[in-house]
Amino acid sequence: MKFQDRICVVTGGASGIGAAICRAFDAQGAKLAVLDVDRDSGETFARSLRGAVFIECDVADAASVKRAFERIAQRWDRTDVLVNNAGIVGREEYGRVQTRRVQQIEDVRSGRKPGPLRATVSLTDEQWRRMIDIHLNGTFYCTREALLQMERLGQGAIVNMSSIAGLDGGFGNPHYAAAKAGILGFTRAVAKEAIQQGIRVNAVAPGFVDSPLRRSLSEALQQLQIAATPMGRAATGDEIASLVLFLASDDASYLVGETISPNGGYLTI
Questions:
Q1: What is the CA radius of gyration of the chain?
Q2: How far apart are CA 269 and CA 249, in angstroms?
Q3: Given CA atoms 85, 248, 14, 226 in this order, what sign does their dihedral have?
Q4: Of 138, 141, 149, 140, which Cα lies nearest the Cα of 7?
Q5: Strand partners, 9
Q6: For strand 81-84 and strand 7-11, is the pairing parallel, antiparallel, or unpaired?
Q7: Which residues are catalytic?
Q8: What are the domain boundaries of the chain?
Q9: Which CATH number describes the domain made up of 7-260?
Q10: How far apart are CA 109 and CA 68, in angstroms?
Q11: Neighbouring residues of 125: CB distance < 8 A, sequence distance ≥ 6
Q12: Which is the most buried residue in 70, 187, 207, 250, by most CB within 10 A?
């Protein structure tokens, strides 16, 4: 098994894509630290795996991240793999934009000029800060702590979860797109530095992924996403997890600072 007894840390690991990543690592023999803010879900999920422990962690809080990695060091004395997966979409603002987007679609179908989306001007300071704190600052805080442990070993792998919105700007979620684009820039910068110590850093920028969040969208928006995807469907969590494990494995030993975007043909670069 490719990750036998390797210490793998996954943030936002209790649900969604993070849970799929954890299950994939577990199947390959890894010892897992499942980091999440949701204690109840996290503890229950970790118990379903063979070699996992749950550690409550708010990635937007540098002190919380530091405590989490101290616990990892106390238990295993090292981190071999970090997957920075924790994130949010911003349900309130996403729901507001979703409603306006559906109205725009109806306007076009009815031959009317669509009204403005007003996504940016509707954002509050707190919504902007929270998105950046969790995605971009959280990725920095966790990477910093992981690097301190990996440097001693002279090896390691970090995989940062971005989004296709970080590549093409998305539509109607400027704070999310900015945070995800920031992760890509951070990945490239850290990768050039860390590889000199044997640590590889890469990123994954998925397109539309079948998830509880996506299934909560209106049928019109889901159809719009699929229509924009030449493959004709959303990715599964397991498909994203397979790519993450590849980047974390020795099979990707010469990949440094790369961004791979599994998006079903939505964006080809």
A1: 19
A2: 24
A3: positive
A4: 149
A5: 33, 82
A6: parallel
A7: 176
A8: 7-260
A9: 3.40.50.720
A10: 51
A11: none
A12: 187
The token duo for 17 is: 């894509």
**DSSP string computed for the chain:** -TTTT-EEEEETTTSHHHHHHHHHHHHTT-EEEEEES-HHHHHHHHHTSSSEEEEE--TT-HHHHHHHHHHHHHHHS--SEEEE------HHHHHHHHHHHHHHHHHHHTTPPPPP--HHHH--HHHHHHHHIIIIIHHHHHHHHHHHHHHHHT-EEEEEE--THHHH--SS-HHHHHHHHHHHHHHHHHHHHHGGGTEEEEEE----B-SHHHHTS-HHHHHHHHHT-TTSSPBPHHHHHHHHHHHHSGGGTT--S-EE---TTSS--
Among 29, 32, 24, 28, CA closest to 8: 32
- Residue 217, amino acid: L
Using the structure block, give the residue that is written with the tokens 């063979």: 50
Task: Tell me the pLDDT of the chain averaged across its residues.
Answer: 95
pLDDT digits (tens, 9 = 90+) for 161-212: 999 999 999 888 999 999 999 999 999 999 999 999 999 999 999 999 998 7
Structure tokens at 127: 């919504």
- pLDDT tier for residue 269 given thresholds of 50, 70 and 90: confident
Q: Tokens 């820039």 appear where? A: 185
How confident is the model over 68-115, as pLDDT tens digits? 999 999 999 999 999 999 999 887 787 777 788 888 888 888 899 988
